[in-house]
Inverse folding.
């Protein structure tokens, strides 16, 4: 079965994505920095046999080590900060995590030869409808 690296797994969407992928019998390598996610979710995912790592997606060297060690075949990227209001107060932090972290993941997966990269976002990127 395919081994998938999923980021942002202690957040709402990431957590439920991992649970569904495990149900479908994918092998999961789960990553979260716990900057905003719920730690109890990581414990539950470990119990469901996900390989869980607490690491910031901006730590490119660590991400590369995990990809190599775990032999990930695809990446599903959900890790991000999402508060629009806070993004105005902390634009450098949001840019660093949301743009810089995504770039780190893209470089790590390219170096590892992973072709499948799924980026999932939220409706907050569109503003008020």
């Amino acid at each position: 079965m395919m081994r998938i690296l999923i980021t942002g797994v202690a957040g709402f969407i990431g957590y439920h994505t991992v649970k569904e992928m495990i149900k479908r019998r994918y092998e999961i390598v789960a990553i979260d920095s716990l900057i905003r996610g719920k730690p109890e979710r990581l414990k539950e995912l470990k119990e469901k046999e996900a390989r869980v790592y607490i690491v910031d997606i901006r730590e490119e060297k660590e991400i590369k080590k995990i990809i190599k060690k775990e032999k990930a075949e695809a990446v599903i990227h959900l890790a991000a900060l999402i508060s629009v209001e806070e993004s105005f107060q902390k634009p450098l932090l949001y840019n660093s995590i949301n743009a810089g972290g995504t770039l780190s993941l893209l470089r790590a997966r390219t170096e590892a030869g992973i072709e499948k990269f799924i980026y999932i976002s939220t409706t907050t990127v569109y503003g008020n409808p």
In short: The two ends are 40 Å apart (CA to CA). DSSP finds five helices and five strands in the chain. The longest helix spans residues 91-112.
